[in-house]
TrEMBL record:
GO molecular function, one term: oxidoreductase activity
Domain of life the protein comes from: Bacteria
Name the record gives this protein: Short-chain dehydrogenase
The keyword Coiled coil is assigned to this record: no
PANTHER family registered for this protein in UniProt: 3-OXOACYL-(ACYL-CARRIER-PROTEIN) REDUCTASE (PTHR42879), 3-OXOACYL-[ACYL-CARRIER-PROTEIN] REDUCTASE FABG (PTHR42879:SF2)
Gene3D superfamilies listed in its UniProt record: NAD(P)-binding Rossmann-like Domain (3.40.50.720)
Key words, A-Z: Oxidoreductase
Length: 254
């Protein structure tokens, strides 16, 4: 029987205290991985998540960093090195949240925030953690993209700009480091049901569901399941992929 087995692996998840991040952290831990919990502002949630992960017998470390600052990423790496030999799996999940507006109304600062947290975060993480993966001839570099990259709907311009720029970085990186048996992939969630939705009873959106072939929104656990698969040896021959987890709402063409 096939199983997603991450036993002995160490995974760094940026934005691990967020709605999707903490489900990914729990899921990778349940598959056997030790978890490095990155956060920027929510230290309380980081500590709660650490306790959860350690309660199932995994090692866990909390690291704080501004992922838009290269020096912060380097300091994060140095702290990690005090506790773990290396990082096997990097999941770039952190992103700045902001109010969506039209191109004419969106602030320049919002465009910069998306470029910094989508494109530059990925570049900083690659420069910091990929060289050691090259030495070991193994590693998983995973980015959380979005179905919006294919939708280009009104109001999405800053978000789409950041995520489409990120897409270019990942595709090139996959070709550059593939010979070292490191995979580079993107998971692209649709509009996902999270803990907030469950608490507020907002899981159903009729207008959105009509556009989705499966006629529903996906869940945070369904996203995390795909991340775990891509992080595992079961996905050892998948790289350079943009994988929508959107119930068919977007479908990359050939």
């Amino acid at each position: 029987m096939l199983q997603v087995d991450l036993t002995g692996k160490t995974a760094l998840i940026t934005g691990a205290t967020g709605q999707l991040g903490r489900v990914m952290a729990r899921t990778l831990a349940e598959c056997g991985a030790n978890i490095i919990i990155h956060y920027h502002g929510n230290e309380t949630k980081a500590n709660e998540l650490k306790q959860e992960i350690e309660s199932i017998g995994r090692q866990s470390l909390i690291v704080r960093a501004d992922v838009t600052q290269f020096d912060d990423i380097i300091q994060m790496k140095n702290l990690i090195a005090e506790h773990f030999d290396h990082v096997d799996i990097v999941v770039a999940n952190a992103v700045v949240q902001y109010e969506w507006k039209s191109v004419l109304d969106q602030s320049l600062e919002d465009y910069a925030s998306q470029i910094n947290t989508c494109v530059m975060q990925s570049v900083y993480l690659a420069k910091t953690f990929v060289p050691a993966m090259i030495e070991r001839k193994a590693g998983r570099f995973i980015g959380i993209n979005t179905e919006c990259s294919m939708q280009n709907a009104p109001g999405q311009s800053a978000y789409v700009a950041g995520k489409r720029g990120m897409d270019g970085v990942y595709r090139v990186l996959a070709k550059e480091i593939g010979e070292h048996q490191i995979t580079v992939n993107q998971i692209a969630p649709g509009w996902t049901i999270s803990e907030n939705d469950r608490n507020n009873h907002t899981e159903v959106s009729e207008d959105y569901n009509k556009t989705v072939p499966l006629k529903r929104r996906g869940t945070d656990q369904e996203i995390a399941n795909v991340v775990a698969f891509v992080a595992s040896d079961l996905a050892s021959f998948i790289t350079g992929a943009y994988i929508p987890v959107s119930g068919g709402n977007v479908m990359p063409a050939i």
